[in-house]
Write a structure and sequence with these properties.
With about 230 residues, this protein is an alpha/beta fold. The protein has helices at about 35-50, 70-85, 95-100, 145-155, 165, 170, 190-200, 220-225; strands at about 5, 15-20, 20-30, 60-65, 90-95, 110-115, 120-125, 135, 140, 160, 180. The protein has 2 domains: about 5-95 and about 185-225, ATPase, nucleotide binding domain (Nucleotidyltransferase, domain 5), CATH 3.30.420.40; about 95-185, 2-Layer Sandwich (Nucleotidyltransferase, domain 5), CATH 3.30.420.
Amino acid sequence: MMILAIESATAQVGCAIGGPEGVIASVQSARDRRHAESLVPQIDFARSQSGVELSDLDAIAVDVGPGLYTGLRVGVTTAMTMAHALGVPVVAVSSLDVVAFPLRFADRPIEVVIDARRGEVFHARYQPGPDLPERISEPAVLDPADLARQIRERGREVLIVGDGALRYRSDLDDLTLARAADPGLAFPSAASLAMLARARAEAGDHVPPDEIRPLYLRRPDAQAKWVPAGEATA
């Protein structure tokens, strides 16, 4: 099975192509808020370098969040459009699952912490497993200080990873129970998405493109800041 993975949920944007031999092409860049301009050229570059034609693809994978609103829209829309045009299904994967994936062989629970802006983080907890990390909490939006309090209350040593952990280091640095993962694993990678999604696609875990829904967890910034006339407070 040949799969194109589209990753655009955070400040980074990229794509990867995975086949029977693993990931055969991967492109990633960190051009915050330039996802729309970057993604299609990246897909074309990965395709040309790998020698894979669009007609060779059996599925499209996409990170559906949680993540940044504009980036998610770019990735999900691109995936749906391509899947419709090619007549292939879509594999939807959470950004939190993608970040946890490289740590599946860790020796302790994993706390994935993605920057949600506005002083908040997207978070989920995972238990390492022989094949895949098992998510043991639902995706949520938290204040970093609340996350630190929860980790203290559980009293178990954890491995913490994600760009949110880097941004809000001051809230988490004094956690003697937390060990930071390699900063190079802070963002969801297109290569990890391709590996995760290919296994799910082969197991039949995919849907028609019209059924893909982004996991926003909260309203976009523009809506959150808008106050209807007559409801403004002094």
